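Lab meeting tomorrow. Look over both lines:
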Amino acid sequence: MKPPEGRKRVVIEDIQPTVNGGRYPACRIVGDVMTVTAAIFGDGHDHLAARLLYKHKSERRWRTAPMTALGNDVWSAAFTVNKLGSWRFAVEGWVDHFETWSSDLKKRLAAQPDPANPKPTDSPQDIPLALRTGALLLEKIAQRASGADARILTDMVASLRWMADQNAAFYEYPLNAEVEALASHSPNLEFSTRYEPDLPLWVDRERARFSAWYELFPRSVSPIPGQHGTFKDVEAQLPEIAAMGFDILYMPPIHPIGFAYRKGKNNSTTALDGDVGSPWAIGAPPSKDSEGGHKAILPELGTFADFDHLVASAAAHNLEIALDIAFQCSPDHPWVKQHPTWFTIRPDGSIQYAENPPKKYQDIYPLNFESPDWRGLWDELHSVFEFWIQRVRTSCIRWPRPGLLSPTPTSPGAPPRLSCSCISKRLRSLQSASSSSRIFGRIHPTSCTERCRRVAARRSCNG
């Protein structure tokens, strides 16, 4: 197929780092040096040049860095990412006619016949003609330059033409390093090739690279034996946790716990009086003080005001609170009655509970991500993230079930599972809207499971 512009002779391939060919952003930490490589080649023996373009989303103009040929068509350049958030970068390459001329001129000069010692095999090198060719190229470059640079280049044009008019028997190389550098600063990009599309980069804070997590169950930290712990009791633990060098305090779900089929101690199928159930059996019947679901707090732990105070106290100790977003429900969850199609219905009309045969978890209903009302389910799950990020200003979120997510955006018709790329984009937009809320360990669309494994490996669990 005929290209739209056949005079673009440079090919750019295999840019790294990219994720799924640029569909998702590569990730770096603020202060990192971002090294970009690409395969850049063209037809014939003409010399090539290339540059790396980059900018933060807050910047209007692209910054550039010259790329260096490493050999075997591989080129490289680097820049330092000095701001959090979204960046873009691109690679542009072109045929460098002036550099090609300069290189060829050096070869011609080296092959000049020696006037003092001529040889039968000597051949004329047409140096004056080559100098006039270089003057034409440099004249166009001078027109693209400005100020003192243009004057220096224009003077060199005149010098090349004067030397050509001398028809000397022997010539020295006429250019100096300053002229060569100025010529490279004003390239002819009329037929340059720019890799499309521009590639995304996400820059995170240092704790996204590594942090030490301390896990505890709030209900187990009461100083009074047998009494349910509270957020205030957790606050009392903060100095000791911080003193051990931890960065993140991770707690299991803090939502109301269901009563139906509540499990007893050690996963007993019979709950005794006083058994508090599994915090992952999320959802209790709504009450005047609580909506009972993923946007509510277990009353025994405290209130939203208590939780806000815990978050502030943790920050004072240079700690952050990580919330566990678990998308599953107890039989008492309000969604069960309000949206039964969000769950899997068995042939007898009952809702499918969680199983890992022969184990049964009757106290937990998994969500059906292939629900006919997938849009409603999707929107509600988005709203859960929005609620905790915007209202509570939590700084960290852990999502323990990456297998429930589709690794790529699915078709507009009927996505079978929730798209983690869309949730990731929404989280980033919420993060950008509030500088006080930073998302740690956002879902990586191409490797959710591995991301969660790394997060889990950084946690230190409190027995």
In short: The first strand starts at residue 10 and ends at 16. The two ends are 66 Å apart (CA to CA). The longest helix spans residues 147-166. DSSP finds ten helices and 21 strands in the chain.
